[in-house]
Amino acid sequence: MSAKRIKERMSGNEAVAYAIRQVEPDVMPAFPITPSTEIPQMVSTFIANGQMNTDFIPVESEHSAMSAAIGSEAAGARTMTATSSVGLALMWEELLLAASNRLPIVLTLVNRTLSGPININCDHTDGMGARDTGWIQIYSENNQEAYDNYIQAFPIAEDPEVHLPVMICQDGFITSHAVENIELLEDAPVREFVGTYEPEEFLLNPGNPVSVGPYSVSNYAMEARKAQEDAMVRSKDVILKIGEKFGTLSGRSYGLFEEYKTEDADYIMVIMGSAAGTAKEAVDELREEGVKAGVLKLRVFRPFPEDEIAKALSGCKAAAIMDRCESYNGHGGPLAQEIPAGLFRNHVNIETVSYVYGLAGRDFRVEDVRGIFRDLQDLTENGKTIEQFRYVGLRSKQE
Amino acid sequence: MRTDISNINEQSPYEDLTEGLKLFAGGTAEQFNTGEWRTNTPVFLADKCKQCLLCCPVCPDGAIPVEEGKRLAFDYDHCKGCGICMKVCPFDAIIMKEGIKP
Amino acid sequence: MKNTLEIRWHGRGGQGAKTAALLLADVAFKTGQYVQGFPEYGPERMGAPITAFNRISKDEIRVHSNIYDPDYVVVVDETLLHSVDVTAGLKEEGAIIINTPKSAEEIRPLLNGYPGRIVTVDARMISESSLGRNFPNTPMLAAAVAVTGILGRDEFIQDMRASFRHKFAKKPEVIDGNMKALQMAFDAVEEAL
Fold first, then answer.
1. Looking at chain C, which terminus has fewer C-beta neighbours within 10 angstroms, N or C?
2. CA distances, C163 to each of A181, C144, C167, C175 (Å)
3. Domain total of chain C
4. Where are the domains of chain A?
5. Which residues of chain A does B28 touch, with a Cβ-Cβ cutoff of 8 Å?
């Protein structure tokens, strides 16, 4: 059932807007914010041109956008929205409600930092800030993955074993505004892949009343949270199943993470988003020079594939853990906490160094990657002391 | 996926609760016996009642049923004994009695 | 980045350097190559120096960083030569293409000793004579294509006519002027080469 592939070139935002047109959700409430503004803009144009039949709700804030999405999804409509940065922060309260009410909403997040200092460029502060809200989070390396992941988001979210909202993330400006090659699918196979949304129970269903979002006393609330956590755990298999099925359709299958030249690697960089491509380029250079380097590109951040990552890293000497986000805990970002915890629990005793890179749009270069692999070599082979937590490309009097 | 809430209580294991604690059923409040919370009980004196029906809409628990333009006896399964009906009655047709029994 | 052509654009906010970079990516895409076209974003300020980038390759492009050692540099606004180090990292075997009425030899002293090829194009004159207004990005796009040799003249002109028809669907009156600007710039560069 391999489908015809259309070779095109477009930006990451265009690619997601194209996918939204193909999926044609029932409702899209949205409020514009840089760098995701183009997405609701393009969708509105598609609607105005009669190219798709989605109800677009122009709301007055992101808080309202997510509130409307919750109401709409609960009513029985396939619903999505788009946002970035402080827009996601303003949705925070509703993000938790979307997840706890088990509503399969899809949000396309174009990652941008949060203030301050005031800045509009890319890092993962927004997505990482929402990491404990109960949303599935999938990160994309480029426009192609943003497109592919968006299409897979609906069958993952709507699977009866899951029923959780899904956030599809791509790096603001770096991929959202970069025109690159892409292979698109035709409308019909995309629609067939996503299927018609037929929820078993929904609010606007005469004769079958439903109560959504009840007050729950302590005797019930904790049980509900555990059930929600179970669904998140179950989603892992569904994500893998859908990733494989998408591969049959498009020739591009997806797992929880991508392993690039890691099989025999002494040194592995764990990284998410657009910088993974830059890391692969550096790995190719290093391989030619005889350095056994590899990249583990994390795609699915929630549910967090702790055991799978530990296993993938178990054969290397040292791993660089890359966070495009600060946690202000003195030890690195979110990945720098969760990956070593997984290594410990799986009794994988390798060296790790945690790095914060690319904050607020700071460019991350092939040379930076090479420098990081040099740190790992220094640490394991040259007997040098390397700080366990470092900033990449920081101007400092100490360097 | 319809919910039978008579199967759900505070001893139910989490696996038996509904997804997101949603209730896939209507009118389930009827099955919740809030009348048990009552410490004062209204008593309906039918001979004094003029059927003005002022008591019915003010009842916060819908515990005064009306049929064919006439109020009936109190629904003591749901009446919490707040006494609003007694206050609003112009004809002293409702009196409050201490305890859960009328 | 082996086998990859890297181009850096310098302009000022509002002059269309970003649009030119995206159009160049379009042009290269039509030759069946892998492309990237992206701007470096900051606060949007009319007149502020801006940078945009292109990568063009036979192989898949995975790098997502800015370009520091370009093969070619395009300067859409001559006044930038006094404030921006436009030749930073520019390969000696590459070239710099500058919008100016001056000759290459008049410009060379402003380029921090850059020893490579300098191509000058009077994009302002070309734009004003063909479009009646100063839109330097259209002639500079043609100059970039001519110098880099991404596409031959006839094929390029043909492609651009189709692109402009799409881009200017609501104001077709500007298509002819833009086509003229492209042709004039292309010819001027070919003549100089």
1. C
2. 17, 17, 6, 10
3. 1
4. 5-197+217-250, 257-391
5. 211
The CATH code that applies to domain A257-391 is 3.40.50.920
Which residues of B are less than 8 Å from A101 in CB distance?
Answer: 20, 22
Nearest CA in chain B to A210: B24
pTM, entire model: 0.94
Cβ-based burial of B84 (10 A; exposed 0-12, middle 13-18, buried ≥19): middle
CA distance A269 to A250: 28
Q: Kindly state the average pLDDT of the residues A253-282.
A: 98
Q: What is the pLDDT along chain C (193 residues), one digit of tens a residue?
A: 678 999 999 999 988 999 999 999 999 999 999 999 999 877 668 889 999 999 999 999 999 999 999 999 999 999 999 999 999 999 999 999 999 999 999 999 999 999 999 999 999 999 999 999 999 999 999 999 999 999 999 999 999 998 888 888 888 989 999 999 999 999 999 988 7
Residues of B in contact with A226 (CB under 8 A): 14
Q: Find the CB nearest A102 among B1, B19, B23.
A: B19
| Distance of alpha carbon A62 from alpha carbon A37, whole angstroms | 12
Write phi, then psi, for C180 (nearest 5 degrees).
-65, -40
Chain C adjacent subunits, 3+ CB pairs under 8 A: A
Domains in chain B, ordered, with CATH?
A: 1-32 (no CATH), 33-102 (3.30.70.20)
Rounded to 5 degrees, what are φ and ψ at A105? -75, 145
Q: Which amino acid is at C128?
A: E
Where residue C32 sits, what CATH number does that domain have? 3.40.920.10
Summarised one tens digit per residue, pLDDT across range B53-88 is 999 999 999 999 999 999 999 999 999 999 999 999
- How many Cα atoms within 13 Å fall on the side-chain side of residue B25? 16
Task: Answer for the pair A80, A52: CB distance below 8 angstroms, yes or no.
Answer: no
Residue B90 is classified by DSSP as T
CA–CA distances in Å: residue A2 to residues A202, A253, A378: 34, 12, 47
Closest CA to C136 of C56, C73, C78: C78
Q: Which CATH class is domain A5-197+217-250?
A: alpha beta
Asked if B25 lies within 8 A of A220 by C-beta distance, the reply is no
* CB half-sphere exposure, A303, CA atoms < 13 A: 22
Helix (H, G, I), strand (E, B) or coil at A311: helix
- A107's CB contacts (< 8 A; 6+ apart) are A66, A69, A80, A81, A82, A83, A88, A135, A165, A166, A167, A168
Written as one letter, the residue type at A331 is H
Of all residues in chain C, the percent with pLDDT exceeding 70 is: 98
Domain that holds residue C136: 4-192
Task: Kindly report, residue by residue over B1-43, the tens digit of the pLDDT.
Answer: 699 988 999 999 999 999 999 999 998 888 889 999 999 999 9
